[in-house]
UniProtKB/TrEMBL annotation:
Pfam families: Cys_Met_Meta_PP (PF01053). GO terms for biological process: L-cysteine catabolic process to pyruvate; transsulfuration. The keyword Lyase applies. The modification N6-(pyridoxal phosphate)lysine is found at residue 210. GO terms for molecular function: cysteine-S-conjugate beta-lyase activity; pyridoxal phosphate binding. It comes from the Bacteria. InterPro entries: Cys/Met-Metab_PyrdxlP-dep_enz (IPR000277), Cys_b_lyase_bac (IPR006233), PyrdxlP-dep_Trfase (IPR015424), PyrdxlP-dep_Trfase_major (IPR015421), PyrdxlP-dep_Trfase_small (IPR015422). Belongs to the trans-sulfuration enzymes family. Keywords: Lyase, Pyridoxal phosphate. This is Cystathionine beta-lyase.
Amino acid sequence: MTNPSDKQKPLGINTRLAHAGYDPSDYYGFLNPPVVHASTVLFPDAQTMASGKQKYTYGTRGTPTSDALASAVDMLEGSAGTVLVPSGLAAVTVPLLAFLSAGDHVLFVDTIYYPTRHFADTMLTRLGIEVEYYDPHLGAGISALMRPNTKVVFTESPGSNTFEIQDIPAISAMAHEAGAIVMMDNTWATPLYFRPLDHGVDISIHAATKYPSGHSDVLLGTVSANARCWPQLLESHGTLGMCAAPDDVYQILRGLRTMGVRLDAHQKSALEIARWLETQLGVASVLHPALESHPGHDIWKRDFTGASGVFAFVLAGGGATRAQAFLDALKLFGIGYSWGGYGSLALQVNIADRTVARTDYPGPVIRLQIGLEDTADLIADLQNGFDAASA
């Protein structure tokens, strides 16, 4: 992509998404990059192999396809470098393994993605790393939890399933003052609506399975680092051999081209539905940070430039039977994990794993992924769910 001169107006996000990561003139003018399937890479002579002075040396160390996606992500993140891994969970585990050692202390927000918690409570503790959880509303108060051996503070905002907003700049400042690095799972907002590195985060993590893919058919993760952390992340990624498959990489790069317009549609429909839910007698509360009623709305408005299509609401009373009646009555909303695709999804949230940030909700928590269907049709489908739940 041709970079604009200093005198030109900066390119818009959709323009950058359409062109980032690959210049057609680099490969005979073809608009899309080649999908390079590679393990062995040949060297022109023994001296070149011995010196290592060749851009590509082996399939696990990068190809033109992976470079195209990593370059596009760097443009979005403002990062020094990005590594690609086979899943969103791998995007969490690789940097944690890269920056933690036996005897270290790590702080995780209590509202993290459950597989992240499971990895911390099993793998990290087995490796001799001390794991501690903190309340998502702590902000600068996290300084009280910092220890001489605290090496990483892990954040996720909004929180998984219940959408608490963290004060990322304040947490980052306190962590850096204590000598720790900050990681953030930013899958919900994507770098289009929140750029973690601009707010003090060192390592930005995304499940590209979600919005970058957009079609619920690819697993992939990205990990982007600032200049200070990039060399260690890159070295650890190569050591772990955690590389992504070329066809998956290509699918994510293709998804990026339309992510801006898709996210805008997801955001608009989700907010309209969230506001409708606030008016329903069967709803106790709606957990969407872009709503003025959300406790973290002011911080969200300060730091974020948009909201994605995932949020939750609390049924007004009832238990699992009522939640299941609601879900089973839905026809357009599928019942399934993940999100970020074109189709709407719903599920009952399980937050029994929380240890320091428990909330006693008056009824079951239902998480919605708002897809690209017509909003009026989705509202009618939800109304069917409420009718079934009240019966």
